[in-house]
């Protein structure tokens, strides 16, 4: 069985894993932090609109 391996770095510590596990980890990291994808697609931030909506809501308890 010849499996392909790849390096994955955690801080400065190199770890040798199967290539499919490294690819899966990269997908998870992009899913958790989509900022590189957002920058490459030139998508504008919507945070200002969310703040305006939350400021206008008042609840009586």
Question: What would the keywords be for this entry?
Answer:
single chain; 20% strand; elongated; 61 residues; alpha+beta; 3 helices; two-stranded antiparallel sheet
Give an overview in words.
The chain has 61 residues and is of the alpha+beta class. The chain contains 3 helices and 2 strands. It starts with a strand and ends in a 5-residue tail after the last helix. It has a two-stranded antiparallel sheet. The model has no long low-confidence stretch (mean pLDDT 78). Strand 1 (5-10) and strand 2 form a beta hairpin.
Short description:
The protein is of the alpha+beta class and 61 residues long.
SSE run: EEHHH
Helix/sheet category: alpha+beta
Total helical segments: 3
Approximate helicity band: 40-55%
Question: Using only CA atoms, what is the Rg?
Answer: 20 Å
SSE topology sketch:
Elements (H helix, E strand, L loop, with lengths): L4 E6 L2 E6 H14 L2 H7 L5 H10 L5
Antiparallel strand pairs: 1-2
